[in-house]
Structure to design on (278 residues):
């Protein structure tokens, strides 16, 4: 572990621990003392890291409001306000989304080269806006982005985000299926290239239309967002976590119940480890 103040690797552990059980260290270069959470996003928080990680995981994955979570943990003897949940989410959600996106990059296959792109509605600042989403042929997430308008600039920005180095595949698809909106053909040619086959169909995006139910059902109890920053942060992390916990690797794949439970437990523990060490 490197020093939280100077970054030196000349660190020695101390025998004592903090009041919450975190290990103490001392830097041999600058002489400062620190613990496991010093310099992290959860530094100076009053609650243990594992509790905060579990709160954020439940907040992102399940249809729970801020007050629902605070009330659930009050029954377990852990007291915090709904504003604390909002603050923890703002700190940890980008970390989890970036790490999960990094882990799924490069995991390709034939399905990754076929994208399905569509937009759904999302309420931001009391107004209905658009949420651009894309999945591949096997139902795995490509990218998501909220936008105020549905026009050429929004479509180009979304395709640039999906094609960027931090996106799922880091490569250009071979085929993109969209609805009949007029902004898509030019946006695909200018952003993804003229070799990409653009296909419009009235029914081949039904899988994506059904996939919209996840984020729509999760945000319905929230009654909208106050800003585009919070909308983008939450929707991106929710889709990343939902895809990470998804047991299937393709449509209509049968996964036994025991295998489903094992995958969920293993991946949820991995997500909690990412949140707890942020």
């Amino acid at each position: 572990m490197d020093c939280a103040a100077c970054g030196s690797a000349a660190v020695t552990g101390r025998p004592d621990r903090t009041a919450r059980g975190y290990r103490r260290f001392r830097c041999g270069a600058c002489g400062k003392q620190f613990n496991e959470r010093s310099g992290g996003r959860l530094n100076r928080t009053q609650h243990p890291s594992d509790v905060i990680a579990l709160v954020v995981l439940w907040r992102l994955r399940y249809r729970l409001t801020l007050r629902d979570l605070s009330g659930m943990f009050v029954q377990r003897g852990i007291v915090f306000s709904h504003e604390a949940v909002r603050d923890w989410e703002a700190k940890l959600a980008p970390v989890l989304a970036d790490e999960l996106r990094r882990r799924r990059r490069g995991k390709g296959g034939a399905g990754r080269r076929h994208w399905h792109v569509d937009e759904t509605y999302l309420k931001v600042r009391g107004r209905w806006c658009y949420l651009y989403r894309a999945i591949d042929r096997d139902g795995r997430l490509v990218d998501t982005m909220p936008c105020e308008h549905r026009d050429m600039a929004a479509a180009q920005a979304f395709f640039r985000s999906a094609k960027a180095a931090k996106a799922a595949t880091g490569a250009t698809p071979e085929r993109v299926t969209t609805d009949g909106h007029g902004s898509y053909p030019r946006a695909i040619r200018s952003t993804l290239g003229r070799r990409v086959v653009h296909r419009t169909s009235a029914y081949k995006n039904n899988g994506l239309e059904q996939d919209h139910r996840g984020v729509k059902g999760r945000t319905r109890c929230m009654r909208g967002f106050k800003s585009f920053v919070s909308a983008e942060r939450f929707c991106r992390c929710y889709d990343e976590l939902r895809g990470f916990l998804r047991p299937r690797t393709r449509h209509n794949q049968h996964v036994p119940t025991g295998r489903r439970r094992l995958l969920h437990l293993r991946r949820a523990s991995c997500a909690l480890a990412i949140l707890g060490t942020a």
Observations:
- The chain has eight helices and eight strands.
- The first helix runs from residue 49 to 61.
